[in-house]
Every structure is written in C-alpha cells, then in structure tokens.
Amino acid sequence: MNTRNQKIITGALFTVFLCSLALLAVHIFPELQPADGLSAPMKSLSQAGRYEKIAEIPLGKVEIRGYKQMGSTPGLVRLSPDGSRIVVGSESGEVLLINLKGSLLWRRKIGMGKISALEFSRDSRSIIVGENSQQGAIICLETATGTERWRKASVVELGVDIRQRTFPGIMSIHADGAGNVYAVALRSIRRPSGKTYYFARVYKFDSQGAMTLFPRDHNIDVWVSWCDVDEAGDTVAFATSDYTPGPERKFKDNIYAYDARTGELRWSRGLAPVAPYDRTNMRFGPEISADGKFLGGVSADGRAFLLDSEGKVLWSRTLSAPQLIQGVYVNATGLHVRHIGEYVAFSTGNTYNRANWQLSTPVEHPQSNSVFLFDRDGIIRKRRKLGGMAEELQVAGNYLAVAVGRNIRTKDPGVHGMVVFSTPEMEVLDVLRTEGPCVAVAVNETHIVGMEAPLQMDSGEVIGSYLIHVWKKTR
Amino acid sequence: MYNRQVWEATPADTPVHRLDVRTKLVLLAAMVVFAVGLEGQRPLFLFFLVALGFHGVARSSVERWKVLIIFLLVGIWGAMLSQALFYNQEPRTIIACLVSPVAPWIGELTGGVFVYREGLEHGAVQALRSGIMLACGLLICWTTDPRQLLQCFLQWKMPYEIAFMLITSLRFLPVVFQETAVVLTAQRLRGFEPIRSFSPVRWIRTAFYVLFPILARALRRAATLALSVESRGFGRRGSQTYMEQWPLVERGACMVVFAGISAGAALKILYSLQFNGIAYFPDLRNVYDFMAVWL
After folding, report:
1. What is this model's ipTM?
2. A439-457: b or e for each residue (b if 16 or more CB lie within 10 Å)?
3. A-chain residues within 8 Å CB-CB of B274?
4. How many angstroms separate the CA of residue B11 from the nearest CA in chain A?
C-alpha cells in the first residue's frame, strides 16, 4: 500500500471518528443543535386562516407512546396572565420559560421528581410547580429568573412508602384573584387484598408561601385529583373518586366545598350512581364560575352537573350513557368542564370497555370524544364531535380551544391538533392540525399555545414530535 | 498497526510521560470507577473527551491515534448497533424496521427485527464507558515502561506471580500484533488475499488461516518464556525493588482523587438505596436532585 493511500485511509478514519463524536455530542447535548431549530416558524396548518403559527419549540426526547399505553405523553403548558410568557413542564422534569416569539428565557430541572402540575400566580411573577416524588413537593419559582422562592413537601401530611414506591404527587394547582394558590396532593397504595387506600390533601399558599390545609387536621381518604377556587378566594372545592369504596371511608360524598379563608367545611354533596357503576367518581372538576355562584362537574360515568354555591344540584345531564353491546359495557368517560360566560362546556373522552379499557369495543360510543355546551338552565346549545380525545379545554373570552389527541379506537392520526370554537354558537373558528396528538393547550385573547407529542402507530411508524406550537390570531 | 513500536511504551518529555507510574495508575483507577459508576450521558461523554485529551497531551503519534480510533469506532458502533437491535427493556421506540414481522419465515421466526432508539442510546453509554477505559489503558501502555509498572505493583504488595503475569501480558500485546503481521505477509506471499471480498464464509476461513499460526507461535513463545524464567529462579523470594520517592504534589493529587472516588461511591450507594426503595433521607433531597440531574 503506497503512502498516498495510507494518508487517504488515515484521513478517512479520523473523519469518521470525528463525525461519530460530533453525532454523539449533538445527541447528548441537544443545545448544540443549530439555534434556528429552536424557534423556526413553520408553515401554517391553519384550516381557516384565523391563526398563523409563529413559533415551534422542540422539547427534546420523550418516551414515545403508542395506542396500547394508557394516557397520553405527559406535558403541561401555561400562558402567563399578563400574556407575555409561556411556561412548559416537560416529561423529563424540566421547566422552560419561553416568550411568545419562541425564544427560551430559561430552563431548569426540578430534580428527581416528575412534573405533575403547573400554574402561574395571578400576578405572573411566580410559577408554581407540582411534582411527583418521595417529597411530592410544591415549588414556587421566580418567573424572571427561575430561582426557587419556596417549596413545601406534601410528604409531611401524606407520608411515603419507599419500598412500595407509593409517592405523594401534586395533582393540580389553581390560583385565585387574591394572590393565593391552591394545590391538591395525593398518594394511593394498593394492598394485596385489592383494596386501595388514599391520602389526599388540599393546600393553600399565600404569596409568601404561608400554608393552610383543607381539611385542617386530617387527610382525605379518597381519590382527589382536582380542586378549584372562585376568583375572590372565598370557596375552595374538590371532587372525589373511589375505586374500592367501603363503609370505612370518611369522605363518602362526591363534592366538598370549604371556606377558603377559615378552612371550615361549608357543604358536601353526594351524587347517586348510575348502573352499572357502584359509585359516582369525579376526577376532574368541580370548576367554579368566576363569580363563585356555580360549580360545574362531570363524572367518569358520563354525566354533567351544575350546582349552585350552596351545593344544590341545579341540573344533571347525561353526556354519555353506558351501553351494553354484545355483553360488553361500552361508555365514554366524562372528562373536563369549563365555564364560558353564561355557559358551561363539558367534554367526553375515548370509548372504553368497562371490563378493561385495553380490550376492544364492538363499536365506538356515539357520544365519545365530544364537546357539549349547555346554558345555565341545562339546555344543550350544541354538541361537537372532535374525532380524538379532548386532552384539555381552555377558555379565553368567548372562545374555547380544545387540544385533540389520540383516538384509541379509530386510530386516525388526521384528527390530531387544536380546534377553536366560538361560543355560544360552537362554530368552528379554526382547526390547527398537528402531526402527533395535541396533549395540552394554553390560550389568551391573541395566542394559542399547544403541546404536540409523538405517537407510535401500530405499524411502528412514529408520527409527530415533542414540541410546542405557538399560534397567533390574525383576524 | 502491526508495527511493534506502536504498541510499546516510548520515552518522551510530556506531562503525561513525566507523571509517576503510581499517579498514572491511581488516575486510571479513578477514571475506570467513574466510567462504571456514572450513568448520565453528559458526564460520560465529557470524561471520554478528557481521556482523549490525555492522548493529545501525551503527543501520541498518528499511528497510535489510528489504533485508538479503530478500537473506539468498533466499540462505539458495535455497541450501538447490537443494543439497537437487541434492546429488550421498556419503553423502546422503533425507529426502523429491518425485517417485517410478516415477512415469510424469517419474520415469523424472529417476530420482526427493529432498530430501537433507546437501544442506540444505551449502546452509546456502554461504548463511552468502554471507550474511557480503553483510552486510559492504552495511554498507560504507551507512556509507561512496563518495568516501572512491575516495580509499582510489587511496592503495592501485589503477589509477584500476578504482577509478572500482568506485565508479561502487556509485553505480549505488541508481539501478538507483530506476529499477526508476519502471518498475514506469509499468507499473501502464498497468494492468499484475506480481505478481497465481503463474503462471511471467506472471512471465517481467513480467520482460521490467520488465527491458528498466531496461536501456535504464541504458545511456542510462551513455552520459551516459561523455560527462561524458570531457569532464572522464578518464584524465589529476592530483595524488593527500589522505587523513587512518590512526588508529594502527585501524591496529594491522588489523595484528592481518591476522596472524590469515595464521595462518588457514597453518593452512588445513597442514590441506589432510594432508587431501590430501601432507604430515603429527606434531608438529603438536594443531593438526590443533584445526582438525578447531573450524574
């Protein structure tokens, strides 16, 4: 082999090695990727042209889920009340603050935990992060810098079982107009007997981090994953679920309302179950109207409720009734509730087989994956079929934005994206398609922010990416 | 690559060459411990670059870089490819389908052959680990006289027989490569072209043609060596070899490194205890967070 050939081989060897190192470096350090990939406006996929996409922000790698996994890829996105910034809680435990142009302001890891809840304080100066870990902490970050202002571990109240790996987690966070934030923490443990034990608590923090507990002196012994508070900070309410009910439970009712200032129980309301269910379970809601006069609720069995501020049920409507088809109970679970002015919107999720959600169903439930708009008298104004799971509903002014995710029955990827409705007409203002399922949404009067997740089709093909879309209203 | 000098330590005036052999061994041990203990891709990659940087400081020749690069490339791509195909943990994401599950016979037999993203990443981590150890090991081989190594081992009370075997194996490495070159040359002179085609059958035949003569020669050489050392009284206790004083600065640096290893090991154990649900200390939350985020 002559010298020239040797030089060529040596050069090629070094080149291949350096390329391999560069590939590894770019993969391991995503921040080394070209900066224009961070905020590159993509072509608008707006159907009606009312919105244009102004930024796409990749969130890095994420576990790619398919149709067989329960639940969507986790991710949270919120717009600051002043409308200038977006906060994202990613599946990797990172909090990112982004401006509306898509530029990253800061990012920080919260540690070992998984981010499970996220909210801005009403003055936009703080970000409240809830995590799921051995501590189950609520963390307050300064919006300007990302530095930690205070943290509170729910493990003190809820406990932890390291061996069984039953950790406390923050399920949801809400803010009132008086500068307080409220968080629900939950830990559950399933015993070999099949019985599940729950430990839940609602926390209130003022702007300095001073804490109040609901109830004051004991944990809630059923599942609580949601709470809400009225704008004035008078009433805090939460709903319950219990998948192994029994006479020993102290919290047998479905909705509880407390005086947010004194911590006293104001009222509680039980809602009779419907066959074939043995208990009414409410995982999302109640949602309190801004004036505090109405509470909207939706149960897992597919019913919608409206209550007044004293806990009286004003009306109840069936969004989706369980149907016995070919010996299988088929239903679509009630998912979300939102007040929009004088109206209330409810959503239903994917069709499921009551025996086991992973088992197939003979048909898709006709009321599944839909949004329903009712007025406060209980008269339905409109129902809209979404085609995919309503992952999140958000309201700004008189329009409603719905993040549409997977349809685990039809497996049609063409339904993914953001759907914007006007209210009370429920006219489709625009459809903003995304390749992968849209799993989270945040809105204000001028912008819509959506989180897209990748999805593995049954063929193995992966569609979509883990990223944030920012759309701006054009007209 | 088949040049014996590429494999043998050569004297030079570089900071790496000037280091005391004990310092080098302690640093090698530290790098190995960190490579095995670390799980994060980022610190592993940085350690890997540091290991390569030492070769730059030692002014390794182009020939040596070639040897190092060949080993590293085989390690990196081999580990990534094998893990990408055979990764069996969950979750795993298919990024390419090599054999469809519905392909006749082979598809049904294997259930499909896929390339998994998580497998590629796991393979990269394993490759970085072995790459750090390989780069550091070769650095010591290339910058340290084996006699110094032997003296160091003996001073550290390693049994003479084991130390001797270790050093002999190091010395045998260049010999084996030189013998390989001789065998290949002999085969070529007889008209054999070992890498003319990519046929697997031909490659296996080539391996047999090459490996058997190498093995035979190595055994013959080992027998000669055994006779030689026996005739010189191998195994009889003689006087201990004298070693120069370990420089104080290097010794201090090694103490710091040792303390770092101990602290790292303690953190690792602590993290493993909580990860496996055995013990969790709430007051050490910041330590756990640091481990989870950075290490």
Report:
1. 0.81
2. bbbbbbeebbbbbbbbbbe
3. 134, 162
4. 24
